[in-house]
Amino acid sequence: MRADTPVQYLKGVGPKTAEKFAKLGVATVEDLLGLYPRRYVDYSNPAPVAAAPFDTDTVVKATVYSKKGAVRLPGGRTMIQVLAGDDSAALTLTWFNTRYTPDSLLAGAEYFFEGRVRGTLTRREMANPTVRTPAQVEKTPLAPVYPQTEGLGSGQIARCVARALEEAQPLAEFLPPEYLARFKLPGRWQAVRDIHRPASLAAAQAARRRLVFDELFLLQLGLGLLRSRGAAAAGAPMAPVDLGPFWASLPFSPTGAQRRAAGEICADLAGSAPMNRLLQGDVGSGKTLVAAAAVYTAMKNGWQSALMAPTEILATQHAETLHKLLAPFGGRVVLLTGGMKAAARKAALAAIAAGEADLVVGTHAVIGAGVAFQALGLAVVDEQHRFGVRQRGLLADKAAEPHVLVMSATPIPRTLGLLLYGDLDISVLDELPPGRQPVKTYAVGSEKRKAMYGFLEKQIAAGRQVYIVCPRVEEGDGGDELAAVTTYYDQVARPLLPGRRVGLMHGRLKAKEKAAVMADFQAGRLDALVSTTVIEVGVDVPGATVMVIENAERYGLSALHQLRGRVGRGAAESFCILVSDHGGEAVRQRLRFICSTQDGFAIAKYDLEHRGPGDFFGDRQHGLPTLQLASLTADTRTLEAAHASAGELLAADPALAAPEHRALAAQVQRLFGRTTFN
Ligand code: ADP
Ligand code: MG
Question: What is the pTM of this model?
Answer without folding.
Answer: 0.64
